[in-house]
TrEMBL record:
InterPro entries: KOW (IPR005824), NGN (IPR047050), NGN-like_dom (IPR006645), NGN_dom_sf (IPR036735), NusG-like (IPR043425), Rib_uL2_dom2 (IPR014722), Transcrpt_antiterm_NusG (IPR001062), Translation_prot_SH3-like_sf (IPR008991). NCBIfam families: nusG. One of its GO terms (cellular component) is ribosome. This is Transcription termination/antitermination protein NusG. Belongs to the NusG family. The lineage of its organism: Bacteria, Pseudomonadati, Bacteroidota, Flavobacteriia, Flavobacteriales. Keywords: Ribonucleoprotein, Ribosomal protein, Transcription, Transcription antitermination, Transcription regulation, Transcription termination. The keyword Hydrolase does not apply. Participates in transcription elongation, termination and antitermination. It comes from the Bacteria. One of its GO terms (biological process) is DNA-templated transcription termination. Residues 5-117 form the NusG-like N-terminal domain. It comes from Blattabacterium sp. (Chorisoserrata sp.). Residues 130-157 form the KOW domain.
């Protein structure tokens, strides 16, 4: 029955301390029996790809630095325990001072956050390049839309392609995103 009262809240933390705060809150739940008052605790993570010394390195990046999302019933003692966790600055609320009461996230925000979180984490996939050097392609976006060109170089890490387009009988070099071109 208490699960019905749980809502999503945003906790402002010290930047870079999001995972520590999550861990501290989980310890608080375990040690002090707040299992009925606190549900999920999320630090939205985004997988990013970096190039280092010619190698792709996948790493996690906090998508909302300085914020932790928590599903909880923040009534009475639970609210004060959360506020007093090391690294927590405040629980986002309307009003100021002692009269401020934590403001839950709207349902649309929660759905967007949970959907976006899944999307961000699953977004990174091995690069699939449907293009090859020397291939003739068509520009479908930008000021050169409608022109055909020949691929001269492919920059995987930037997700860009260098191509030569014939304009007024002269080859003109362009650098475009993969999304701005298509196969003929």
């Amino acid at each position: 029955m208490e699960d019905l009262k749980k809502k999503w809240y945003v906790i402002k933390t010290m930047s870079g301390q999001e995972n520590k705060v999550k861990s501290y809150i989980e310890n608080e739940i375990r040690d002090n029996g707040f299992q009925n008052s606190i549900g999920k605790i999320l630090v939205p993570i985004e997988k990013i790809v970096q190039m280092r010394k010619g190698k792709k390195i996948y790493r996690d990046k906090v998508h909302y630095p300085g914020y932790v999302m928590i599903e909880a019933n923040l009534e009475g003692e639970t609210y004060h325990k959360i506020k007093n966790v090391s690294g927590v600055i405040t629980v986002l609320s309307e009003g100021k001072g002692n009269t401020a009461h934590p403001t839950p996230m709207r349902k649309e925000e929660v759905n967007r956050m949970l959907g976006k979180m899944d999307q961000l984490y699953e977004k990174v996939d091995p690069l699939h390049l449907p293009f090859v050097v020397g291939e003739t392609i068509k520009v479908i976006d930008g000021p050169f839309s409608g022109f055909n060109g020949t691929i001269e170089k492919i920059h995987e890490e930037k997700r860009k392609i260098e191509l030569a387009v014939l304009i007024f009988g002269r080859k003109t070099p362009l650098e475009l995103n993969f999304t701005q071109i298509e196969k003929i």
